[in-house]
# Entry
Amino acid sequence: MGGKFKLFLVGYLVVAGVIAHLVAGVGFIAAINYFKLTPHQFVVKAAKKTGIDAPWLMALLSPQPRYSDHPMDGQIKAAHPRILLPEISTGGDAGHAAFMQHRTSLYEAQGITAYSACNRTGILALAACWAVKADADKARQLIAELKAYRIETPDVSAQYGNGWQLALAYDLVAFSAELSADDRAVIEVKIEQALRDYLALLDDKSPSLWHGRTSLAASAWLCAIVLNPMNEESAQLIARAQGHFLDLIKALTLTEAWPEGYNYWIQERAFLVVLASAAYLNGLEGKVRRKDEINSMLKRLGLWHVYATRPDNRIEGFGDEGSRVDLKDETRRVIDLITQLTRDPIFSTFSQYLENLHGRESYYSGYHWAFKLLNDPSVPGLGFTGEGLQALAPQLPRAELFGRDALNMLYIRSGWGPDDTFVSFKAGHSFAHHGHYDAGHFTLFKAKPLAINSSTYGSFMGANRLNYSIRSVAKNTLLVLRPDEKVRPNRFFEANVAAGGQRIVLPTGSAIQSVQHWHENVGKGQHLEGGRVLHYEHAEGDYTYIAADLTGAYNNTKYDQGGRGGKVSNVVRELVYLAKEDRLLVHDRVVSTNATYTKKWLLHTVDKPMVANFQVLKGDINNGILQSSSGQVDIRHGEGYLSLQRLYPADAVIRLVGGPDYQFYVETDGDDSVLDGSNYQAGASSQPWFDVGMWRLEIQPGNPREEDEFLVALSPSVGVLRQDSVEPLPINGDAKGLFSALQSIVIFARRAEHGELAFHVSPNQTRLYVFGLPEVQQVNIKTVSGLNNALTTTNGVLNIDLTDPQYLGGGSISLTW
# Structure
């Protein structure tokens, strides 16, 4: 037996003994959670406690270094600063002072509220003070603080270390004549150790990409960019850090928004991500191949902030949300940095909007030191007048889709003013554990939230979150109830709650290691698939159309978590927003594997909807479950009104579920023939940043069928309920349609290579829309005036102006293709 093997065996046994001692009476997993370490870190910690310091043993215990062969993109600049304000090192002390004086004069000329950089403690505030004042005494004070700075080791439990702060502060002062070679060496040793700590975590499998791995990768790159690349060992670490960071860029390019929701983005990830992007754009020279990609990613992220902002000056949330959907404290510093990097006047205008909205609270008081580093007054705005976001109207289309083929997040608005209609729609896959199971979910805002996301985020492991808020039942999407469907994703789900919604795959933890790893688990592996956009088209001032296949989000015939062959074979949702009518149409085709599985079309409201001819099924009229055969529902919240008309199924009934004892009601057994569900109140939150919903309506077919089509028209208004109704359109052919009092005809056809539709048009109809036709297909149009033809769009939309002389007079129309 060789000596090295003997040493390894002895070391292994000793380490095992220490581990056994550490976890005695607790358990390995519990011990890891207690010490807030990855499994690898825990074993290494145990090894060190044995006194064994053999490098080969540590190497054996360590995970394989990732990106060890990553070729550097670009070269690190010799000069500092490399992260923020590279301009201040040009022209020596005089150039530094002149640059900051000019920036200050621009603030004063534009009436921008600038914050003091010198009235806070801490190395970042001190570094900002030095950068603004260009004072030698401040530089010496900062250097002393940097040399004494204590590095905190990062872990995977939201403690991501402070190495990046040391790196940023050092980078700002690194060109100062007050910094000696010895000072530089002492500080860079600390930063390099912080980088090694970040890389050790990033090499481990525990951190998840659209979660903690993002913060770790951004922090690692911030440390890497300030080091001396001429040192061979440092150069290897720098290259590995760049590899991790570029995978983060690939992830954000894929989603274009944060899958866990806005609050987790803006409070936990956003600033580090954008700051690290600044380090890439400012700190590299030569042939930097990924520069344009990062610039484009930053613009898309910035636009997501803008489009997600509702007319009531808050963000439309969709994941485990929190208080910062109010746009205070955190958002503006991120937008300011995006403005500085992209020099896009849209973001400069949005920054002015945030200042007008929240004043000094647009920057958290603890960040006031950063204002003059981040806010660039030389980027012109768009003539902001203080009227909300209306200054953006000439620049931006009224709809935008983010993260196509991934997150699939769509925002639509009738305009950028306070009384305009705002619609959101989400039909993406799963990415991280703070996301929800909401493919097909939409919201509608007009003066007030009218069709809402009723999820709240209180206790992460609370019954409300696990059994209601993360689930489809809390969203405006579709349920398909299958009796006793298996829904127990892990041990934290004590009971099997079969609420009828979509598969739950990452409810309490995730460990996605890379974009490639994510792709490997869509359609296989963990089955992270959800919704898939089939078609998207926006015609400015006319219509916005999206069609999404939601089948993969449910237990379906291709994959079923419970191994029961699926409950659906096809689920497709189409949304059309008619800009001229300010009307949202929702069309669904749902095919279940069993006709007895109850289908439900959901819409959540803040206040109780009004419906005629109801009967009480359980509880009472203000606290229970009601049912009506009416096709009309009136919804009011403050000055906001919404008229809902159910056109199909023709035999449908509407249930209202709500009140104090039914606010979070779920049919737990997947069977609503007996109303014996539970109200999951425990762990819920009623904080003011949530659109707390007390009621939901459920449209469900009156008779069992394997296939059902839902067609619902939603007509919002301010101050008074609209009376311009819509009516079903009789059609010969495989389609559902409607016509409105505002002269539009809308038809949803079943997409097929060949088909024929026939219907009647009255003389006052002015516009015909047919959705769901084959793409770029010639359609023959036969009217009383003769035969014409037209071409569908690349998304299968036929848009006909019925005021054209060839269509005047109305009568029968047939379409063949």
About this structure: The CA atoms of residues 256 and 670 lie 35 Å apart. The longest strand covers residues 707-718. The chain has a mean pLDDT of 92.
